[in-house]
From TrEMBL:
Domain Histidine kinase: 236-441
Compartments, record wording: Cell membrane
Species this protein is from: Kribbella qitaiheensis
Domain of life from the UniProt record: Bacteria
Primary location recorded for the protein, binned into one broad class: membrane
Reactions mediated catalytically: ATP + protein L-histidine = ADP + protein N-phospho-L-histidine
Protein name, entry field: Signal transduction histidine-protein kinase/phosphatase MprB
Membrane spanning residue stretches: 150-170
EC number: 2.7.13.3
Lineage summary: Bacteria, Bacillati, Actinomycetota, Actinomycetes, Propionibacteriales
Length: 445
């Protein structure tokens, strides 16, 4: 019975050794594949592939790793060795995923009794369009040898463990080992939920667990500092901009009496002032109710319709279709910055989505919902969960201009009045961004 339990415990450890070796090799070569994908972007557009072929040959000679680049039609453009057959099952599967713009899947575990190479592929992308793929055929002999050594060590440890069971130390050892791991698991869940100040104790543990605890604490500290730097950057930027903007407004306000052009500049200064105010709020609390209330409710539908008058002209100038959907009156907190929210949503829809773009205001129970829908490529399920995070941008849109703060500001504005932002894929494709804010019951339509 003891032997069976020991074997059962060793199976996941053996799988971890094989999976870890595979993941380490994959990640190390993924960086090289990303570099080749970057270097191949210009040659795939210009057709000048001589330097790219030379880089591939040098890389092959240095790392004993064949590399080749294909275009979107799977034609081999540059390779470090001849005889590449893209129709091979492993290459064909990898190219299907890469040329479709999907994220690469984790490779299978490496075991000593297997053979073959690992395929690492990355798309060559320009302005969101896939031009081709860079592919590495990575030898796995050394990694499999490493797995073999790890399995032998595991077998030795298994025999030692069985001997330890015989002399009656299983229970205290198990309790000693699992307690810190359980604490580390709980701490990891706390960090995942946003408690970046979570730390684990590292005293009185095995050296390996101490190192693991120290690594976890260092990771949590780095995450906390990164979040703090983001907040400090936004706060400092808004603070530094406020004084010169105020001074500029005073000077331009004086000039506006003499020049019509200055009046337009004054309008732009006021808009910059509102942006600075939004950045300042973004750097502060995200909790709802962090505003000074007013007794008069704001009709969200009416405010949206008034703002859409200008946006219809903007969309028409760019030959984009803007559809005004159903507009149901509904009272919301007057502190809600409707113009700023709508500006962000319509600007994002025009840049990252596809026409037609439809705007509507509806009621849903105790909420009033401002909805903006486009008919673009939309977002994957993982990306939908990250919408509204500061400085986050979808992988498909990182080549386009932007800061990743627009939807974060929208989420902050909604939170100030007790609202929220929801992103979802609609039927028929595209993306819907909903700003849901509490309905003021006593609003008089």
């Amino acid at each position: 019975m003891v032997v069976v339990l020991a074997i059962v415990a060793a199976v996941p450890l053996a799988n971890y050794i094989a999976t870890s070796a595979s993941r380490t090799l994959f990640l190390s070569r993924s960086n090289d594949a990303d570099w080749f994908a970057t270097m191949a972007e210009s040659p795939l557009q210009t057709g000048d592939i001589a330097s790219l072929r030379e880089l591939a040959v040098r890389y092959h000679e240095l790392y004993n790793t064949p590399v080749f680049v294909v275009d979107v039609d799977r034609r081999v453009i540059a390779t470090s060795r001849s005889g590449v057959d893209v129709a091979e099952s492993d290459l064909d599967s990898a190219l299907d995923s890469t040329l479709a713009g999907r994220l690469p899947t984790e490779p299978p575990s490496l075991w000593p009794w297997q053979t073959g190479e690992m395929v690492v592929a990355r798309p060559v992308v320009n302005n969101g369009r896939v031009l081709g793929a860079a592919v590495l055929r990575v030898p796995t002999d050394k990694a499999r040898d490493q797995v073999e050594r790890g399995l032998l060590l595991l077998l030795g440890g298994l025999l030692i463990s069985i001997g330890a069971v015989v002399i009656g130390i299983v229970r205290p050892v198990t309790r000693w080992v699992l307690r810190p791991l359980d604490q580390l698991d709980n701490a990891t869940h706390q960090v995942t939920r946003g408690a970046l100040d979570t730390r684990v104790a590292t005293d009185g543990r095995a050296p390996e667990l101490r190192r693991l605890g120290d690594s976890f604490n260092s990771m949590a500290l780095s995450l906390h500092q990164a979040r703090q730097r983001e907040r400090e950057f936004v706060a400092d930027a808004s603070h530094q901009l406020r004084t010169p903007l105020t001074s500029a407004r005073i000077h331009i306000e004086g000039l506006s009496r003499l020049s019509p052009t200055a009046r337009f500049a004054l309008s732009d200064i006021d808009r910059l002032g509102r942006i600075v105010q939004r950045l300042s709020r973004l750097a502060g609390s995200d909790r709802p109710g962090d505003v000074e209330g007013s007794d008069d409710a704001l009709d969200l539908a009416q405010a949206v319709k008034e703002r859409l008058v200008g946006w219809k002209a903007v969309y028409a100038a760019d030959d984009l279709e803007l559809i005004i959907g159903e507009m149901v009156p509904g009272g919301v907190a007057p502190e809600l910055e409707v113009d700023d929210i709508l500006d962000v949503l319509l600007d994002n829809a025009s840049k990252y989505g596809a026409p037609p773009v439809e705007v509507s205001v509806l009621r849903d129970g105790t909420e009033v919902v401002l909805s903006v829908r486009d008919h673009g490529l939309g977002l994957g399920s993982r990306d939908l969960k990250k919408v509204g995070e500061r400085f986050w941008r979808s992988a498909h849109h990182r080549e386009m201009p932007g800061t990743g703060l627009g939807l974060a500001i929208v989420r902050s504005e909604a939170a100030r009045v007790g609202g929220r932002v929801v992103a979802r894929p609609p039927i028929g494709g595209g993306l819907v961004i909903e700003v849901r804010v509490p309905l003021i019951d006593d609003y008089d339509m």
